[in-house]
């Protein structure tokens, strides 16, 4: 069994290795400039989506990169970004183990492409999409989150003590002709409710919501019905979302959040009758490059993969998308990781909001050892609070980086982008998840891949070089 496992990983990894045009020794030499965003906007890396997969395609820009009309200079430090990601990991793990993280209520056929881009200047390394809400549509820039279900925006009236500043205008329900409150004791409210009632007392008439996140921030308000505009002429009628009027915590100047998890209240589930419960995205390598989010796009048959390689996927706790890691290769060589060490793990949660990939201890230790050996020509920095394999690349005009490939159940391999799918600020974008905790496939490793979640068929696909 072990020999068969090794053979599958090597053969598939070699296929991707060749398709990316890399040398025969498993290393790629890149300019250190390739780690940084360009000063000018570029969308040249976005590949054309097949017409049958997307009837609407929207140009994508990074919210705070050079493609944006206005930019925010208030960018957090690398350490602060990692701290926020760590808080998110703790939240996901608590949710996955059903011990924490709460979403509660209280009484008070075709496909669409919409923007997705790295939100570095919203004080995080998460990705954002820009959509329209209401009639007439008001532009809202929202965090795109596969680890959340309920979508929400800040709503007027909301003063500076109850809401945090945002660059876009607050969504004002009073100015929309299609806005409606969702009453208590409706199916929509029951879908939202943790306890199945949707309201806290018999006198309540409006369905409310309250969300507490892993970093102790929270948002609350009224559950609402509105028209969501994904692209010009493409709308979602009766879109259910949270109209938030009370915020608390170190929020990030974004307008709200769009939930892409697996629960009934998510955008994916709400639009499943139209888009088949499938969605995909491509996260760009750098802030100066474009990416996309697609609703729909699942291949019509098992034989039609449309350039994707698919692996089985499960949905855990109604929200999280989980895959099984089978092996890892560094510099073209499969690591000596006992298959049982991965088979007994709880899988990897694919998450758009977590920065760093977390691997089971045995797998991470093997990866770190191999990567450090391959990078021995460069000075290794002392470990920081989050990452233990960082390099001082000052003075180097070029860096030779070993390739890293992750293989999943069914013989699917991701040959990670070099350098931006492997290194982040000179650090290996992996860390130890521990022995018992589920792993997480972070957003750095996902860069430049189109990741297609075919929820209805229980699989996820990867297409390299999509953006």
UniProtKB/TrEMBL annotation:
Transmembrane segments: none annotated. Gene3D superfamilies: Acid Proteases. Residues 1-21 form the signal peptide. GO terms for biological process: proteolysis. Pfam families: TAXi_C, TAXi_N. GO terms for molecular function: aspartic-type endopeptidase activity. InterPro entries: Aspartic_peptidase_A1, PEPTIDASE_A1, Peptidase_aspartic_dom_sf, TAXi_C, TAXi_N. It comes from the Eukaryota. PROSITE patterns: PEPTIDASE_A1. The active site is at 145, 351. Keywords: Aspartyl protease, Disulfide bond, Hydrolase, Protease, Signal. Residues 127-463 form the Peptidase A1 domain. Belongs to the peptidase A1 family. This is Peptidase A1 domain-containing protein. It comes from Urochloa decumbens.
């Amino acid at each position: 069994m072990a020999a068969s496992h090794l053979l599958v990983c090597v053969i598939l990894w070699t296929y991707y290795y060749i398709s990316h045009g890399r040398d025969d020794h498993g290393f790629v030499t890149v300019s250190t400039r390739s780690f940084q965003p360009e000063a000018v906007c570029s969308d040249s890396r976005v590949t054309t989506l097949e017409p049958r997969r997307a009837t609407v395609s929207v140009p994508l820009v990074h919210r705070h990169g050079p493609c944006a009309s206005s930019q925010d200079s208030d960018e957090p430090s690398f350490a602060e970004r990692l701290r926020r990601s760590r808080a998110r990991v703790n939240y996901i793990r608590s949710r996955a183990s059903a011990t924490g993280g709460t979403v509660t209520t209280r009484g008070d056929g075709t496909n669409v492409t919409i923007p997705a881009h790295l939100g570095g200047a919203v004080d995080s390394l998460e990705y954002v999409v820009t959509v329209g809400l209401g009639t007439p549509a008001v532009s809202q820039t929202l965090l795109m989150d596969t680890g959340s279900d309920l979508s929400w925006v800040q709503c007027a009236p909301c003063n500076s003590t109850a809401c945090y500043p945002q660059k876009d205008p607050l969504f004002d329900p009073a100015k929309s002709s299609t806005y409606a409150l969702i009453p208590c004791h409706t199916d929509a409210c029951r879908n939202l409710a943790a306890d199945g009632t949707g309201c806290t007392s018999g006198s309540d008439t409006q369905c409310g919501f309250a969300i507490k996140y892993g970093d102790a921030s929270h948002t609350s308000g009224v559950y609402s019905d509105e028209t969501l505009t994904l692209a010009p002429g493409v709308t979602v009628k009766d879109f259910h979302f949270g109209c938030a009027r009370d915020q608390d915590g170190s929020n990030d100047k974004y307008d709200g959040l769009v939930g892409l998890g697996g629960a009934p209240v998510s955008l994916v589930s709400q639009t499943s009758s139209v888009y088949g419960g499938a969605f995909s995205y491509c996260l760009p390598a750098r802030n100066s490059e474009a990416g996309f989010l697609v609703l729909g796009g699942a291949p019509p048959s098992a034989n039609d993969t449309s350039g994707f390689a698919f692996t089985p996927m499960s949905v855990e706790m109604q929200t999280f998308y989980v895959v099984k890691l089978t092996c890892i290769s560094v510099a073209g060589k499969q690591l000596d990781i006992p298959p049982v060490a991965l088979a007994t793990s709880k899988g990897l949660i694919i998450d758009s909001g977590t920065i760093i990939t977390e691997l089971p201890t045995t797998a991470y230790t093997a990866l770190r050892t191999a990567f450090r050996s391959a990078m021995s020509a460069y000075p290794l920095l002392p470990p920081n609070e989050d990452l233990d394999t960082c390099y001082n690349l000052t003075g180097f005009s070029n860096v030779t980086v070993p390739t890293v490939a992750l293989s999943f159940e069914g013989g699917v391999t991701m040959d990670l982008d070099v350098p931006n799918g492997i290194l982040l600020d000179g650090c290996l974008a992996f860390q130890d998840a521990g022995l018992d905790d589920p792993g997480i496939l972070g957003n750095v490793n996902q860069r430049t891949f189109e990741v297609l979640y075919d929820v209805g068929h229980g699989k996820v696909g990867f297409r390299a070089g999509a953006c």
